[in-house]
Design brief:
By secondary structure, the protein is an alpha/beta fold. 40% of the residues lie in helices and 14% in strands.
Length: 382
């Protein structure tokens, strides 16, 4: 049986040309951008060139002193931690309930440490509740506030109204951090048009290597480090920069952004094919966020009457890799906090499975998957 990978929201296959880029960067020899000799200078140049390349993909100029900047991290998780913990002079945090654990858990930790945290509710449609945001922002006027919300949800793929959120925060003089880990390289972003304070993202979500992420910080905002012991990256994130991984991330993002619309079209076609063919067979399936604006390739489907853990195991035996909820929690698979925050019925929460296609997915894989998923669901539904 040919394995089929439908878990591209968890991580993606590294693009072959990114592997070449990594190999070439690694074979260039020792590369410590802090070294003053010619090898160090060449490594520094490579990091600077990649930074500009990434800035270009995000619609941000990253080579101006005091302007927007990029801080390389080891992951999206670290980028979220660094910004939410590190943004200076925040007195009040407004954090959405549908965040990835790398933001949610920081919020809970801040709360345990006596910080003022408000939890922003989500609507049944899977977006954050703008009326609640308005209320929370007006209640925290004259207080230095950070709003933290994601751009695209990792479980449902639902896109948040970032433009509106950014405008509301600008009016209320609040800072806004956006976890863009699921959408960088998948939807066209132009950070120069928005009033965001920071975003976080991670290369392995767009066919780059794992072990490298970044926080983009808009000019004029400072971040206190959460680690100490080095002068790299202006001491904000000490540690020798992984030059090859950075080059791999830049290359992966450049490829993704160069064919973004075609890839999005391809993914959306396959995602729709999967949803439509499953719905034809099982009209009572629930596609979470079916009518909302979503990432092109992500689908969260509730197989009502089946148990998601049993579904996952049976699908794995059928050669289909997919997940329930976020990859980070899929080992233990607690019920989805995202679907709970969307007030979905328990039957839907208990049976929700996430599928995500990529540019490497094919229509025949989807056809084959439909057969295998149907077989499993027929067997497991009560
Ligand atoms: C929305 C979101 N934020 C953050 C992360 C964490 O990224 P990383 O796996 O690079 O730590 C993920 C990973 O699934 C994610 O989907």
């Amino acid at each position: 049986m040919i394995p089929i990978y439908l878990d591209n929201a968890a991580t993606t296959q590294v693009d072959p040309s990114v592997i070449e880029c990594l190999q070439s960067a690694l074979s260039e020899g020792p590369a410590n951008p802090s070294s003053l000799h010619h090898r160090g200078r060449s490594a520094r140049y490579s990091v600077e060139r990649t930074t500009e390349q990434i800035g270009h993909c995000l619609g941000s100029v990253l080579d101006q002193p005091g302007g927007d900047r990029l801080i390389f991290t080891g992951s999206g998780t670290e980028a979220n931690n660094l910004v939410v913990q590190g943004l200076s002079q925040i007195q009040h945090y407004i954090i959405s309930r549908i965040e990835h654990p790398s933001v949610l858990e920081v919020g809970k930790w801040l709360e345990r440490n006596g910080k003022s945290v408000s939890w922003l509710e989500a609507t049944k449609a899977g977006t954050i509740c703008l009326e609640h945001l308005e209320f929370l922002l007006s209640a925290s006027r004259n207080t230095s506030t950070l709003v933290s919300t994601m751009w695209a949800n990792n479980e449902t793929g639902i896109l948040q109204p970032i433009e509106k959120i950014s405008l509301m925060c600008e009016e209320a003089h609040a800072k806004v951090h956006v976890d863009a880990t699921q959408c960088v390289g998948k939807i066209r972003l132009n950070l120069s048009n928005l009033n965001l304070t920071s975003i976080a993202f991670s290369a392995h979500k767009f066919h780059g290597p794992s072990g490298i992420g970044a926080a983009w910080i808009s000019g004029g905002h400072s971040i206190n480090p959460i680690m100490f012991g080095g002068e790299q990256q202006l001491e904000t994130r000490p540690g020798t920069e992984p030059v090859a991984l950075i080059a791999g991330m830049g290359h992966a993002l450049t490829i993704a952004c160069g064919s973004l619309e075609q890839t999005a079209q391809h993914c959306q076609t396959l995602r729709n094919q999967l949803e439509h063919s499953l719905l034809e067979r099982f009209p009572d399936l629930v596609i979470q966020g079916a009518t909302a604006e979503r990432l092109p390739g992500t689908s969260c489907i509730s197989f009502v009457g089946a148990d998601r853990q049993s579904m996952l195991m049976a699908l794995d035996l059928e050669g289909i890799a997919c997940s329930s909820g976020s990859a980070c929690s899929s080992g233990s698979s607690p019920p989805s906090h995202v679907l709970s925050a969307m007030s979905r019925p328990k039957l839907e929460i208990d049976s929700a499975i996430r599928f995500a296609v990529s540019k490497f997915s094919t229509s025949s894989e989807i056809e084959d998957s439909t057969e295998r998923i149907s077989r499993v669901y027929r067997r497991l539904r009560r």
